[in-house]
Amino acid sequence: MEQLIDSFGRKINYIRISVTDRCNFRCIYCMPEGGINWKPMDTLLTYEEISFFIKVAGKLGISKVKLTGGEPLVRKHLDNLVSLVRKTDGIKEISLTTNGTMLPVYAERLKDAGLDRITVSLDTLSKDKFKQITRMGVLDDVLKGFDVIDSAGFTKTKINTVVMKTINDDEITQLIEFAHKRGYDIRFIELMPTELIPNWKDYFISIKRIKDIIKDRFDIKSSDKKTNGPSVYYKTKDGYIGFITPLSKAFCAACNRIRLSSEGDIIACLGHDIRVNVKDAVARKDEVMVEKLIKYSIKIKPKEHSMLTESIHSTMSAIGG
Ligand code: SAM
Ligand code: SF4
After folding, report:
1. CATH of the domain at 181
2. Which domain range does residue 157 map to?
3. Residue 198: pLDDT above 90?
4. Mean pLDDT across 208-215
5. Measured in angstroms, how far is the CA atom of residue 25 from the centroid of ligand 2?
6. What is the count of structural domains for the chain?
7. How far apart are the C-alpha atoms of 117 and 157, rounded to whole Å?
8. 180 falls in which pLDDT band (50, 70, 90)?
9. 107: CA distance to ligand 1 center in Å?
10. Cα–Cα distances in Å, from 41 out to 44, 46, 288?
11. Ligand 1 in reach of 317 Cβ (< 6 A)
12. Cα-atom radius of gyration of the chain, to the nearest Å?
C-alpha cells in the first residue's frame, strides 16, 4: 500500500470528514447566533461520493476516518455512511465527533453499522452555562446521549472541552471527575481564534494554565498514550486527560491529517484557506483524478498554521473542527 508523505516528511493517515455544515447548536466560538447560509443539500457530497473518496484515500494509506460537521447527526441516516466506510479496504478506524443530542436516536444504529468510537463535546455541567455557550442546547439531552453510548456498547469514549476564561475555567476539575467516573478520557482544547470571536484573547486560557489548575487538585503523571490527533496525554489514578494546543506550532510538526468539507473541498491545513475541490471528480467516479487531487493537496500542505497572526476565515462548523 502507498503512503502519503507531505513535503515536510509528515505521514498523512487520518482524515476528518465534515458531512454537513448544519447544526442544532450555535456555540459561541463556532457559529453565529443566526446560523450561517447553509449549503444547499444538492451541493453536498452524497454518502456514495464520500465513500468513493474514502476508497481512493484508503488505497493511498489513509486508515483512520473521523466523521464530523456541523453536527454530523443532523444529516439523516449517518449510519448508512458508516456502513459504506466500514466495507472500505484500508480503513481501520471510524470515529465520530458529535454534540451528543441525537445519540438517543442513532447510537445503536451506529454501533450496528460498525462505528468504532465516539467523542462528545461538552464544555460545562451547568444547565445555564450550557445554554449560554451553545445558545440552543439543553444539557440533559447530551447527558442522555452518554447513557445511550454506554448501553449501546461503545468504549474508548472521549469528551472534548474548549476552555474559556471566565466562562467555564472554574469547572475543569468537575468535568474531569465526570469523565473519569464514566470511564471516558477528557481532552481540553485551547480556544482557536475565528472571526466570530474578535475578542478571543479575553477568553483564551493556555493549556499551561489549565494544567496548573489541574495539578492543584489531581496528581497527574505524563503518559505515552497516543491517539489519532495531536493530544498529549497525562494520567491520573482514575483515567486520562489530554491537552490539545492548536496555537502551538509544535502541534503542526506532528500533523497527520487532512480534512474533507461537506462540499468536497480537501483542506490540508485548518489554519489556511487553501482548498482543492474533488466534487466533480468523485461524481464522475474518476479514481485517477481523485488520487491526483489528494496527492496534490498533500504536496501543498503548509508547514504550519498562521493562527497567531490571522484568525480562521471559515467557521469551524464548515470545516469540521
Ligand atoms: N458538532 C460536533 C461537536 O460539537 O462535537 C462536531 C463539529 S465541531 C466543529 C468539532 C469540535 O470543534 C468540537 O469539539 C468543538 O468544540 C470544536 N471547536 C469549534 N470551534 C472551536 C474554536 N473556535 N476553538 C476550539 N475548538 C472549537
Ligand atoms: Fe455545532 Fe459543534 Fe459548532 Fe457547537 S461546536 S455549533 S455543536 S458544530
Report:
1. 3.20.20.70
2. 4-318
3. no
4. 94
5. 6
6. 1
7. 6
8. very high
9. 20
10. 5, 9, 26
11. yes
12. 19
Sheet of 257-260, strand order: 221-222, 232-235, 240-244, 185-190, 158-163, 117-121, 93-98, 64-68, 14-18, 257-260, 265-267, 275-277
Q: What is the pLDDT of residues 259-289, one digit of tens each?
A: 999 999 999 987 777 899 999 999 999 999 9
Ligand 2, atom 4, lies closest to the CA of 27
Cα–Cα distances in angstroms (integers) from residue 84 to residues 35, 48, 100, in the given order: 30, 8, 22
Residues whose CB is less than 8 angstroms from the CB of residue 171 and which lie 6 or more positions away in sequence, other chains included: 124, 125, 126, 129
CB of 27 shorter than 6 A to ligand 2 = yes
Element (H, E) at 187: strand 185-190
**311 or 59, greater pLDDT:** 59
Measured CA to CA, the distance from residue 117 to residue 156 in angstroms comes to 6
Q: 114 is written with which cell numbers?
A: 460498525
Which residue's entry shows cell 477568553? 203
**Closest ligand 1 atom, residue 196 Cα:** 23
Rounded to two decimals, the pTM is 0.93
Phi, psi of 123 (to 5 degrees): -100, -15
CA 287 to chain centroid: 27
Nine cell digits for residue 218? 489531581
Of 2, 1, 48, the closest CA to residue 295 belongs to 2
**Measured from the CB, is residue 167 less than 6 Å from ligand 2?**
no
Ligand 1 center–CA 298 separation, angstroms: 24
Q: Where are the alpha helices (DSSP H) in the chain?
A: 47-59, 78-86, 103-113, 127-134, 139-152, 172-181, 200-203, 207-217, 250-253, 279-283, 287-299, 316-319
Condensed to tens digits (0 to 9), the pLDDT of residues 95-153 reads 999 999 999 999 999 999 999 999 999 999 999 999 999 999 999 999 999 999 999 99
